Amino acid sequence: MNQAKALPPALTAGLLERRDSTMSNEESLVGLEKTPTQVKMRSASRRPKKVGKKPALPAHVVQARQCHNDVEKQYRTRLKQKFERLLAVLQASKVKDESGGEGDSEAPDCGYSRGEVLDFARQRILALEEENRRLSDQVQHLDRRFTIV
């Protein structure tokens, strides 16, 4: 169960463009809002609640609950969008790294849980750290060769 799902490369063609560096992170990602079907997060199914007879509540309590529910819904929506953006970035970087690509056994329309997205991000960070170490060693080796000659 510890194995993460492979990222389907069919979902990731050209999702991101960098804009001017003075813009915020929200403004610097282009194309993600325009293509919401490119990434798909898995969501829990929700059944309608059974509505029973409840005593009438004062109007200010009903309004306070509604405001709280609206704020919570906005929070969940923003969090979901952040996870979708993270997944899109991970998939785009995965496509750039794979020249030929691996055979994915999964259908491209399957969704990913938030935990899986975080696992993908962790794996990507570790891979980038390893690549950074390898390139740093290569630069040091070339620098030593250059100073000897």
Automatic annotation (TrEMBL):
Pfam family, one: HLH
UniProt-recorded Gene Ontology molecular function terms: protein dimerization activity
Protein name per the record: BHLH domain-containing protein
The organism's taxonomic lineage, starting at the top: Eukaryota, Fungi, Dikarya, Ascomycota, Pezizomycotina
Record region (Disordered): 1-57
Keywords: Coiled coil
Keyword Coiled coil assigned: yes
Domain BHLH: 65-128
InterPro entries: bHLH_dom, HLH_DNA-bd_sf
Coiled coil: 118-145
Top-rank taxon, per record: Eukaryota
Composition skew (Basic residues), residue ranges: 43-53
Signal sequence coordinates: none
